[in-house]
Design a protein that fits this description.
This protein has about 425 residues and is an all-alpha fold. Helix content is about 60%, strand content about 0%. The chain has helices at about 1-5, 10-25, 30-50, 60-70, 75-85, 90-105, 125-135, 140-150, 190-215, 230-245, 250-285, 290-305, 335-355, 360-365, 375-380, 390-415, and strands at about 160, 170-175, 185. The protein binds zinc ion.
Length: about 425
């Protein structure tokens, strides 16, 4: 579906997405019943394990309390994500207004995903990608790079690089205590996306490698709540490197827009999912189930709030109300919020790695820690505060800087003759 959402012809994007929404819409009552039953079973299971007792936090349904207890994370972390995203929604809306202006549209809708700036169509061989990513990861220190180089070399036994017939088409990392080293399955296709995925999966691999090297037995496995941090930190470092290297204003605009878009996708979109899922569980608990109509209402309200529908940012037409039906993660119990918290953590770490020479400490104190400490203890030691606003304030300030830079470039572009 991602391919069609970005199709260059708007009419095609609209036709495909509308068709999809209509198909899901036709089965929405069935989906609602399945989802309702699933959430009810999660609630019942959590209550059986005494997560629904009298002392409970009224904001946190037992199913969420259960999930957070498994991750060893306090409820504040979940609620903070939602509160902080809401508090900074004006930035998401500003980003949409900028896009609207840059694309010359009267009205920006969910069908207008055209990228800004020059097309990022640079191609890389695997050897070129290796060199580029190594340069981007240099701030992590010599030790990190030495092991990275050894592992990422074709023939090292760690990595299978190219797509081939019958190979699982995704990018994937397998690393667990007792294995001789991490196993990386890539499908490197030579485009920008492949470059970032290479840095991402490599980040997972090094996290697993260092943790197993420094921790005994099962403590060598990574913390589930934090296991997207190392990969996203690498992505942040590569994005920052590409931005520094961009030569023309159009290339700079493209990389900045990509970074802002990534931010919106990883933080605001995941916060919307987190809020929707929470609202569904609360509704099911209160009413002993949920109907398709109630799901539509909840979903449209949240979609519009996050998009800035009433603030002239991005319009969400009514036909999007049943888009909840295609979110498979709603059946997997509070899985997605970790992507947002990891992204915010990665941003905080990458900034210190780039500006304050924190790379070697990050390798020692985070990548090598495995699950020897609870996630909140690890985060406290890294001075990343996900319970209050600390890490969020820093991350959103970075987004604001991207937007300032995009705005300045667009202003300059507007002044150029012939535009
Ligand atoms: Zn990952």
């Amino acid at each position: 579906m991602g391919k069609y959402q970005k199709h260059p012809l708007r009419a095609n994007r609209v036709a495909v997405l509308r068709g999809l929404l209509r198909s899901y819409g036709r089965a929405r009552r069935t989906f609602a019943q399945i989802l309702s039953a699933e959430v009810k079973s999660r609630l019942a299971l959590a209550k059986a394990r005494r997560y629904g007792d009298a002392k409970r936090d009224p904001r946190t349904p037992p199913s969420l309390a259960h999930r957070l207890a498994e991750l060893e994370v306090p409820a504040d972390v979940y609620h903070s994500l939602i509160a902080q995203a809401r508090k900074h929604l004006h930035l998401a809306h500003r980003w949409s207004r900028l896009r609207k202006r840059a694309l010359g549209l009267e009205r920006l809708t969910s069908y207008d995903n055209t990228p800004l700036g020059a097309k990022i169509d640079q191609r890389y061989s695997y050897a070129q990608a290796q060199r580029l990513v190594e340069r981007a990861l240099r701030p992590l220190g010599k030790r990190y790079l030495r092991h990275w180089r050894r592992g990422m070399r074709p023939g090292s036994g760690w990595v299978d690089v190219l797509p081939s017939r019958g190979k699982y088409p995704q990018n994937y990392l397998l690393g667990a205590p007792g294995m001789p080293h991490p196993f990386l399955l890539l499908n490197f296709r030579g485009d920008h996306q492949s470059l970032l995925l290479y840095a991402h999966e490599g980040g997972h691999a090094m996290h697993s490698f260092f943790s197993q090297r420094h921790q005994a037995g099962p403590q060598g496995s990574t913390e589930r709540f934090l296991d997207e941090v190392a990969s996203q930190t690498n992505e942040c470092l590569v994005s920052a490197y590409l931005l520094r290297q961009a030569r023309t204003p159009e290339a700079r605009l493209a990389y900045l827009a990509r970074a802002a878009g990534q931010f919106a996708g990883k933080v605001f979109r995941m916060a919307y999912y987190a809020e929707l899922e929470l609202a569904i569980h609360q509704h099911v608990e209160r009413h002993d189930g949920i109907t398709a109509k109630a799901l539509d209402t909840l979903n449209l309200k949240l979609l519009r709030r996050y998009a800035g529908h009433h603030q002239g940012a991005r319009a969400v037409t009514k036909e999007w109300r049943n888009s909840w039906a295609w979110i498979p993660h709603l059946y997997r119990s509070f899985k997605l919020f970790r992507y947002a918290t990891s992204f915010v953590t990665a941003h905080a770490l990458a900034e210190r790695i780039l500006r304050k020479g924190f790379g070697p400490s990050y390798v020692k104190r985070f990548l090598s820690a495995g699950s020897s400490k609870e996630p909140m203890v690890l985060l406290r030691e890294l001075a990343v505060d996900l319970r209050g606003g600390g890490a969020y304030t820093a991350a959103f300030a970075q987004l604001a800087r991207y937007l300032d830079a995009i705005e300045a470039l667009l202003r300059r572009r507007g002044r150029r003759p012939g535009r």
